[in-house]
Amino acid sequence: MPDTSPQATAGSRPPSEPRPTLEAVAARAGVSRATVSRVVNGSTGVRQSLADKVHRAVEELGYVPNHAARTLVTRRTGAVAVIIPEPEVRIFSDPFFFRQIRGISKELTAHDTQLVLMLVEASGDFERVSRYLAGGHVDGALAFSLHTEDPIPAITRRAGIPTVYGGRPVWTASPDRQAVPYVDADNRDGARVAVRLLRDLGRDRIAHIAGPPNQTSGTDRLDGYRDVVGGAYDGTLVAQGDFTPESGARAMAELLERRPDVDAVFAANDLMASGALRVLKEHGRRVPQDVALVGFDDMDSVAESTDPPLTTVRQDVEGQGRLMARLLLQGLEEGGTAAVQDTAGQVATASDGDSLIMRTTLVRRATA
Does pTM top 0.85 for this prediction? Predict the structure, then answer.
């Protein structure tokens, strides 16, 4: 009786059989070894009919390219580092990071590229990252959630690897700094939309729970808030947070103590808005009747689970992750960063070199 087990199906071999070679694939396909090498290493210039023969032979023989040999030929490792200088507890509790990583992972997987996640929790971790990148283990890097003081840009420059950033790096505002490719949301305009909504609802004591001042997403959203309130800006209506629910709660309590007459709040992200909402309820403030509330991000696991559901500004975090990876991969293919086609009409501007700024949209729910 024939063996129909999965181990005996086409393209597989018993463990005792020798590993198929390029020569064996070439013989099966009726082409030269050089042609097989070009096809399996993704090179161009091979006629489609010959490439199809090679692919069939690879499948029939169960050929698996030797990674070390392939690296010598292509000078590529097939891996990309994803660097996040944030505490591990925050990365695994904040849905923003999950969405960004998911977008990156989907794009890398579609291009047969391995994601190497590198977390930077303490200052000593930067040296570990530097050694790893300098060791030639990855073809490039993607880094996001950077702070003003983070040495990641200097580390990647020393390692000589292409890097794309998530979020506008703070150093790009300095004319003497090297331009770097990045993908970001239009944070400033999204903040303007949020505050205009609150103003159009007739609220005139609009507070802002700001993000960290050492991250451009925080400063850009604060700038958007100031753009709308204009000459009526009042520092007593601004409190500082760090994008966590706990900081949003602390900031809201501080605002209520300073300005009990506050009638609206724009929080720089949904997690801080959720903390603010809890404190408003504890102080007997009805939302939105007494105090209207708007967040930023549209993390559905947060915005749809608050009571009442949160009105917020949506940024496509997963889409940003995919665009970051696409920008890097296309650049690796072309020997530098490359422009990415905006097929979904999501890019608001792309004027800063190879960088992409994605549009934001207002999502109305029940808090405003």
Answer: no
